[in-house]
Structure formats: structure tokens, C-alpha cells
Design goal:
With 330 residues, the chain is an alpha/beta fold. The chain is 59% helix and 8% strand. The chain has a 5-stranded parallel beta sheet, with helices on both faces. The structure holds guanosine-5'-triphosphate (GTP) and magnesium ion.
Length: 330
């Protein structure tokens, strides 16, 4: 609902932080805590690298039951799951997907090492895995290039090395010694090196390379998809926070007033809109009385239709928010 009357769940956090009531900061802390992601996959596919990307984007990485390091960790502790594959989906990947699905946790398959495999056949992977797939080259997401690395890349601009295979790249005679070439190869892979060399020879500043590589890595698409898969978890948190505040409202006028406020109603609506939009439905963003009324009617009908309890609650919250917006316009 881009551009529409959106109020972020931050208003809840802000209220909770500012409110003097002693129980409220705990509610705020639970609401603001990072969402939890469980990363799994076969050995060597890039689990550690992908996990690093997710944690630096603010996710909390939790143990995955099929992570060999943590075979005993419990299911259900994650808000979303990522199954990393490289090139092919194997039976154990399919069973991971099925296991998470079975415990009600949304799953995203990350087709990692896209820089090595070329264009990943996403549709075939999606069918094989039974879950949405996004390709990425996590290696290129957060590259740090020191002066030596930049120096070696500049030398490669002037004297291209044989890019056809890692061995060819390393073994040919070259002004850059083998050791720094190996270091570059580990840091960037051949595709990352090729990108960087091309950018430098097109006049890019070395300081811009990490951002260019990040863009090439595709991890921002992974983060976007995860964000939308996490919409139900965010909504559940908002609802849980509201329920906790309800319990406190009897003893606090400030809390009771906040719960009845436009901010609270509209923030809940925003979280609900995210949930239905994540499933591909559209919510009319228009900000005029007729639109608010139409939206209220449409989502009230939706909430009474053949939908699951999550969507029923979301429909009702979108209706309630729309009626509040309508009232405000009167
Ligand atoms: N080319 C390329 N290499 C990658 C990518 N992601 C990870 N790697 C490399 O693949 C190797 C394994 O990556 P990790 O992130 O350690 O994978 P893992 O699944 O944790 O592996 P183990 O814990 O050793 O089983 C490392 O050498 C990484 O640098 C990628 O997107 N592209
Ligand atoms: Mg690892």
C-alpha cells in the first residue's frame, strides 16, 4: 500500500518507550527484538556466508535443527527459514523445506553461488524445492578491499589474467604474483574479479566497488523476499503486544488511551496490510473518504470469507483502520 495512509509499527515501540507504566518497556522490547531466521543447507553451499549477510541486515540467526553443528536444537524457534542450495536441489534440501513448512515456518530457498553457476534456473529450482527461490552470490555482498587488493585489481586492468578457470587465472605468468591473485580469487571469485576490473577500467572509484559488488550479489532481493515472508511474524508480534497492553490498560489510563488512538489502530492496519500484500493481494492506497469506505467494506467481506484465521484477523484490522481513516476525514 505504497504512499497510502501508512503508520509504521514504530509508533507502538515509541509509545512503549515513552510511557511511564512499568510493564510497558518489556512489551516494547519484545516487539522491537530482531526477527529470527534459521539457515540450513548442505555442507559448503555458503550457509556461513549467507548467515553473515542476514545478521548484518538485522536478523537474529537461530539454530537450525538440520544444521550438523546443532542437531538437537528445537523446531519452531524461527520466524522464517532459509535453505541454502548451490546449483542443485537435493532430497535433503526438499526434506528441510518440508519440515519447516510442516511446522508453519515460511521458507525461502537461496540459490547461492550464482556467480559460479551463471543464470540459475529459478523456476526449475522452485519446482524441485517446493518453495520460493531467490538466487544470490553471497560472497559478493559485503566485500572489504584493502590497498593490496585494490592494487592487484588495478594491475589486472592493465594486464588481464586468463579468466577461463581458476587454474588458468592462477597459473599463467603475470605481473601480479600468484599469492595476491589467489587472495583475490578467494575474496571475489572470478566473476567478482571480472566485475571489479571492468568497473575500474570504466573509471569507477575503488571505494565504489563494494557497493557495485553488493548490487551484483543479489542479496538485497533475498532480504526483500525474507521481509515479505516475515510479514505474518511481524503482524503476530503486533497483535501480541496489543494483547499485553490490553492487560495493562485496566491499570493505566495512558495505555488505554494509546490503544484507542489512531496510531495504534493504524499501525495494526499497516502490519495487516503487509501480510495480505505479501500473498499478492492489493490494498487500495488511496487517501480519500470514498476509498476508505470501499476498503473497509472490501476487507470486512474478505475477513468473513473462506480464509484462514490469520487472514481473517488481518481483514478485520484493515477494515477497522479504514473506518478510522474515514472518521478522521469527516
Ligand atoms: N563463488 C562463491 N563462493 C561462495 C559464495 N558463498 C560462499 N562461497 C564460498 O564457499 C565456501 C563455503 O562457504 P561457507 O559460507 O563457509 O559455507 P558453509 O555452508 O558454511 O560451509 P561449511 O560450514 O564449511 O560446511 C567458502 O570458500 C566461501 O567463500 C558465493 O556466493 N560465491
Ligand atoms: Mg559454515
Amino acid at each position: 500500500m505504497q504512499g497510502g495512509p501508512v503508520i509504521s509499527v514504530d509508533v507502538l515501540t515509541r509509545f512503549a518507550q515513552e510511557c511511564g507504566d512499568p510493564g510497558v518497556p518489556e512489551v516494547a522490547a519484545r516487539l522491537a527484538a530482531p526477527l529470527r531466521v534459521a539457515v540450513s543447507g548442505r555442507a559448503g553451499v555458503g550457509r556461513t556466508t549467507v548467515t553473515r549477510v542476514l545478521t548484518s541486515a538485522g536478523w537474529l540467526a537461530v539454530d537450525s535443527p538440520d544444521n550438523p553443528d546443532n542437531p538437537d536444537s528445537p523446531d519452531g524457534a524461527a520466524d522464517v527459514a532459509v535453505v541454502v542450495v548451490a546449483e542443485a536441489v537435493k532430497p535433503e534440501d526438499r526434506s528441510s523445506v518440508a519440515r519447516w513448512r510442516g511446522s508453519g515456518v515460511p521458507v525461502l530457498v537461496v540459490g547461492n553461488k550464482a556467480d559460479l553457476t551463471g543464470a540459475v534456473p529459478l523456476e526449475a529450482l522452485r519446482r524441485a524445492a517446493g518453495a520460493p527461490v531467490v538466487s544470490a552470490a553471497a560472497l559478493l555482498a559485503d566485500v572489504t578491499l584493502d590497498d593490496d587488493a585494490v592494487g592487484a585489481l588495478r594491475a589486472l586492468v592493465a594486464h588481464p589474467a586468463d579468466p577461463r578457470s581458476p587454474d588458468a587465472f592462477l597459473d599463467g605468468a603475470h605481473p601480479v604474483a600468484r599469492e595476491p591473485r589467489l587472495r583475490l580469487l578467494r575474496l571475489l571469485g572470478r566473476t567478482g574479479i571480472a566485475h571489479s576490473v571492468r568497473a575500474l577500467s570504466d573509471g569507477a572509484d575503488p571505494g565504489d566497488l563494494p557497493a557495485l559488488l553488493r548490487e551484483a550479489s543479489g542479496v538485497d532481493r533475498v532480504l526483500d523476499r525474507l521481509d515479505s515472508l516475515a510479514a505474518p511474524a511481524r503482524y503476530r508480534r503486533v497483535r501480541a503486544a496489543l494483547a499485553e497492553l490490553q492487560a495493562l490498560a485496566a491499570g493505566s489510563r495512558q495505555v488505554a488511551e494509546f490503544l484507542a488512538s489512531d496510531d495504534a489502530v493504524l499501525a495494526t492496519m499497516t502490519a495487516a496490510v503487509d501480510v495480505v500484500e505479501a500473498t499478492g493481494l492489493e490494498v487500495d492506497p488511496a487517501d480519500d473518504p470514498a476509498a476508505h469506505l470501499r476498503r473497509a467494506v472490501r476487507w470486512r467481506t474478505y475477513s468473513r470469507g473462506p480464509v484462514n484465521p490469520l487472514h481473517r484477523a488481518c481483514g478485520a484490522d484493515i477494515c477497522r483502520g479504514s473506518l478510522r481513516l474515514l472518521e478522521r476525514r469527516r
